[in-house]
Amino acid sequence: MLRLSLILLAIPTLALAQEPLSLQAGQKLAQASFGEYLQLLALPNDAINPPDIQKNIDFLERAFTQRGFVTKQLANKSKPMLFAEWPKKIAGAKTVLYYMHLDGQPVVDKEWSQPSPWQPVVKKRDSSNNWHIIPTEALFATPLDPDLRVFARASSDDKGPIMMLLAAFDGLKQMGVDPAFNVKVLLDSEEEQGYPSIPDVVTASKHLLHSDAIVIHDGPRHQSERPTLIFGNRGSARVTLVVHGPKQPLHSGHFGNYVPNPAVRLSRLIASMKDDQGRVTVAGYYDRITLSDAEKQILADTGDDEAAIRRSTGIKLAELVGGNLQEAIQFPSLNVRSMAAASVGEKASNIIPHQAIAEFDLRTTPEAPPNYLFGLLKAHIEQQGYRLVDGAPSDQDRAAYDKLATLTLGSAGRAVRTPLESPLGKWAYQSLQKASLSGEPVRIRMMGGSVPTDSLVEMLGAPFVIVPLVNGDNNQHTFDENLRVGHYVEGVRTIVVMLQAPPAW
Amino acid sequence: MLRLSLILLAIPTLALAQEPLSLQAGQKLAQASFGEYLQLLALPNDAINPPDIQKNIDFLERAFTQRGFVTKQLANKSKPMLFAEWPKKIAGAKTVLYYMHLDGQPVVDKEWSQPSPWQPVVKKRDSSNNWHIIPTEALFATPLDPDLRVFARASSDDKGPIMMLLAAFDGLKQMGVDPAFNVKVLLDSEEEQGYPSIPDVVTASKHLLHSDAIVIHDGPRHQSERPTLIFGNRGSARVTLVVHGPKQPLHSGHFGNYVPNPAVRLSRLIASMKDDQGRVTVAGYYDRITLSDAEKQILADTGDDEAAIRRSTGIKLAELVGGNLQEAIQFPSLNVRSMAAASVGEKASNIIPHQAIAEFDLRTTPEAPPNYLFGLLKAHIEQQGYRLVDGAPSDQDRAAYDKLATLTLGSAGRAVRTPLESPLGKWAYQSLQKASLSGEPVRIRMMGGSVPTDSLVEMLGAPFVIVPLVNGDNNQHTFDENLRVGHYVEGVRTIVVMLQAPPAW
Question: Could you say which residues form the signal peptide (chains A, B) (predicted)?
Answer without folding.
Answer: 1-17
